[in-house]
Structure formats: C-alpha cells, structure tokens
C-alpha cells in the first residue's frame, strides 16, 4: 500500500514528494526530485529520519542512488554536541577554566614594609618601640589586651609587680610583642614560633635586637601544628613551659582542634598558664587538659581566656 500527496515546494528549489513505497529500503524518509532547471545558488540538503536515525553509510547510499555527490551535502549536527555559540557562552561565563594563567614576568608583587606603632608596656624594656608590618597580614595583640593579660598572670602568680621567673612559649608570635613583654617583665627564656620567614627576618629578629633580648630568645620558623607535633624535638625533653600565649589569625584556625592539640602536647605542665586570644562568637571550653579557665574577658570583638592550675583559681577567688 502506498500513500501519496501533492508535491511540497521547498525553499531550496527542490520538489519534495512524500510518496513512499512500501518496498523501499528507506520507508521513513521523504523522497525528493531535483528541479529541471538548475539554480545558481548552492543548496544545502539535510537528511533526517522521522523515527529512526540513519547511519552515515545509509545516507551515502541514498545520495548515490539519486546521482548526488555525498560530499556536497553536510550531515545534520548532533544535538548532543554543543554548538559554537554555546561553547562561546560557556567560555565567557567561565573565563580561564582549564587554562593556566601565568603572571607576567615583569609584574612585581607589592613590597612589604614596616612601621613602629607598638611598644613594650612594662618591665626593663618599657616604652621601647617595636616594628610591625603594615597591612593586615600580621595582627598583633592590642596593647589593652596585652596589658590586661599580664596583669592577670602576675596577680595569679602571687607577684603583682612582675612575672614569676620561667619559660614562655609564644605561638603565632608574629612581631614577638607578647614574648618580648614577657622577657621585659621577668621571664628567663622565650621560644617564638612563627612560620613567615619575612616576618622573622624583618620584624621579629630586629625587635629582639633593639630590646637586647636576642640572647635569651629561640626562634622556630615552622608552622604551629608542626611544632606541637614535634615539641620534644624542638625544645628537648624538658619541654613543659611555664607560660604559653596563643594568638592565631582568627579565620585560619579551628580553636577546638588547636586547644585539643595543645592540651595533649608535652609543652603543657601542671603549673602552666595559657593565654588565648579568640574572636567573638567562639566557644571556649572551661578546661584545657589538666588546666582550668581562671579568667575570660571581652575587649570589643576580642576575647581573652586564661587557663591555669587549680591553685591559681582558688587564690584568685580568695
């Protein structure tokens, strides 16, 4: 049985006849006849199946059956492959994706500089000016916070005028202002832990030299996490400190993990005092290993927690 209809005029100048023979090898395709008069423009014919797609070999055979050159008629682009316009749109939305962007050789990074805005608050180096980097890459402890911390420690140690002699560990030391304050007020030795070599050579070491505390200082240019993991290797078997200051960059540490690592480290002894500076909306535990929280104060958006032995807490309550 055959179905026929009147020819349909094509905009390409080709009469398409929908007469389909049941015996045809391509039952789902519309057959076409070439016009008697050749056209001046090049026509593009795209073949597609109504139901089942044709392979490239079937299309080639169909073109040859009607005496046409298959190379003159491109195949219909696959719907699964993105068009050129789509690819360009994605490249605009995701510039540089999958490409390596290399900085120009002649482009220099901004040079880091320092200024003298900090000072030692008490002790034998009182009013000595200290260097600090310009910008926010290093954030020293505010002087009001530092002064309050040392007042609490001196009172808890039973000597309000100065710190009891001992060893101090300054974690995330940066400018070294906390450790230098500790030496100025009576500590016999301070270990500074700072990972930035530029800060160590251009800020921390010059501050120790100008205060005259370089001989009683030890600088560890490592990450705090690495120092805590290998504390005995860095400071020897007698690694418990009398005082520890913790002033990390707020957004780059997890205080829960950090304090847990400190509490399990051999740097903490039964009589150790720990000073922790932390930001607003941070939950600090009431204890750190064998130590208890003896004070917690707020200075604007900055909080100061001090942990110490139980005897210091009882003395403070009296």
Automatic annotation (TrEMBL):
Residues 68-114 are annotated as: Disordered. Residues 74-83 have a biased composition (Low complexity). One of its GO terms (molecular function) is methyltransferase activity. InterPro entries: RNA_MeTrfase_RsmD, SAM-dependent_MTases_sf. The keyword Transferase applies. Keywords: Methyltransferase, Transferase. GO terms for biological process: rRNA methylation. Gene3D superfamilies: Vaccinia Virus protein VP39. It holds the Pfam family Cons_hypoth95. CDD domains: AdoMet_MTases (cd02440). Residues 100-111 have a biased composition (Basic and acidic residues). This is Uncharacterized protein. It comes from Populus davidiana. The lineage of its organism: Eukaryota, Viridiplantae, Streptophyta, Embryophyta, Tracheophyta.
């Amino acid at each position: 049985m055959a179905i026929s209809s009147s020819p349909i005029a094509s905009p390409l100048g080709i009469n398409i006849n929908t007469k389909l023979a049941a015996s045809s090898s391509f039952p789902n395709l519309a057959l076409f006849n070439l016009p008697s008069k050749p056209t001046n423009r090049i026509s593009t014919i795209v073949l597609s199946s109504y139901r089942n797609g044709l392979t490239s070999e079937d299309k080639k055979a169909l073109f040859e059956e009607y005496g046409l050159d298959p190379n003159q008629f491109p195949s219909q682009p696959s719907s699964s492959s993105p068009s050129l316009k789509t690819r360009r749109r994605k490249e605009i939305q995701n510039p540089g994706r999958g490409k390596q962007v290399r900085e120009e050789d002649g482009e220099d990074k901004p040079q880091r500089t320092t200024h003298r805005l900090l000072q030692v608050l008490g002790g034998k180096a009182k009013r000595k000016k200290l260097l600090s980097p310009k910008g926010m890459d290093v954030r020293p402890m505010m002087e009001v916070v530092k002064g309050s911390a040392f007042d609490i420690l001196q009172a808890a140690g039973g000597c309000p005028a100065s710190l009891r002699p001992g060893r101090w560990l300054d974690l995330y030391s940066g400018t070294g202002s906390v450790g230098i304050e500790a030496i100025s007020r009576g500590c016999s030795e301070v270990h500074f832990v700072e990972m930035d070599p530029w800060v160590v050579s251009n800020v921390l070491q010059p501050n120790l030299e100008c205060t005259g505390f370089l001989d009683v200082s030890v600088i560890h240019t490592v990450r705090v996490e690495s120092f805590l993991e290998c504390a005995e290797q860095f400071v020897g078997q007698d690694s418990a400190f009398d005082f520890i200051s913790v002033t990390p960059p707020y957004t780059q540490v997890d205080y829960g993990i950090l304090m847990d690592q400190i509490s399990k480290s051999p740097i903490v002894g039964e009589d150790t005092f720990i000073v922790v500076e932390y930001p607003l909306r941070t939950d600090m535990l009431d204890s750190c290993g064998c130590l208890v929280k003896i004070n917690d104060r707020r200075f604007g958006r900055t909080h100061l927690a001090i942990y110490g032995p139980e005897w210091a807490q009882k003395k403070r309550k009296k």
